Amino acid sequence: MGGGGNMSSQTSKNNPLKRMPTSKPPFTIGDIKKAIPPHCFKRSVIRSFYYTARDLLAVFVFYYIASTYFHLLPSPYRYLAWVTYWIAQSLVFGGLWIICHECGHHAFSDYQWVDDTVGFILHSAFLVPYFSWKYSHRRHHSNTNSLERDEVHVPRIKSELPFLKKCMNNPVGRTVLPIMFLPLGLPLYLVCNFTGRHYDRFACHYDPYGPIYNKRERLWIYVSDVGVIATAYVLYRVALAQGLAWLVCIYGMPLVLLNCFLTLLTYLNHTHPSVPYYDSSEWDWLRGALCTVDRDTGILNKFFHNGPNTHVVHHLFSTMPHYHTEEATEAIKPVLGEYYQSDNTPFYRAFWRESGECMYVEQDEGSHDNGVFWFKNKL
To answer: Where is the segment annotated Disordered (predicted)?
Structure first.
């Protein structure tokens, strides 16, 4: 099985658009776990805090340089310096965001209270409701690529395709709409469940009484809202003291670019012509978890703590810390074989391709797999 898996994996790598199998895998989650060195599942609170402290130090170094020296530069160089700062700071923000994400998965340490404390503080700083996102994201992992129950990046079937999505079926739409989508994707998802699961009424991550959450979770949604409100108040006081333009330059623009990167990378990990979606007649957890794609995004892999290029193993074992996922990914490839999907297409080209080709999902005409849906784009 191992040799055949290597061959299938190599074939998939050479042709990333080749569809993955939809039959039930010849292996179990237990088989996959056995292939991974046991130390990969161990969480180190010291090592996790090291990465947190390293990223925070970089944030403050960039902040100090920008706030201390940029005003001394002549005009042309000052503008270039600010743009460089926005990009660099947003990438460091991305590393901290991944650490928040790990806290929500209990992958930061062996202590739930430590994970929740760190995640709550850091996520609130990015205006993200920590517990609200933690609960909905947990359901995403429990229902990956289920058309009825997945929580985010849920595609529409052709008959339900919204008008704006149809407008993307031309070069202008494929250029303009994705540019609008990148900075707004995450905020719209949090505020109005954009690209999320269909609910019978309005769904919002800031609403304790919304359909996303149950009664036991309601208190923690309030706590999450308090964290976001506290951050907003601090930002308001900073704007009064330093000026709105200063706040936008120091914090606002890096946050906008962070949202762009997060939307782009999560979209690419979950949107690809080679992976199917399933309805309730066909879906099961393991096949759904395998319907994610590892993307080699070059230097972005390092800034985002290998989140983009190890997403498959993350969906299989979400409590695994990021500093073990590369080793674990290499270990599971022979077991997964053709069920492992990866794509090394440059992320900007991949985003252009997927935004045009992955418009809706539909069953193949004449197929006997009635519960299997594939991305298509012909209107």
So the answer is: 1-24
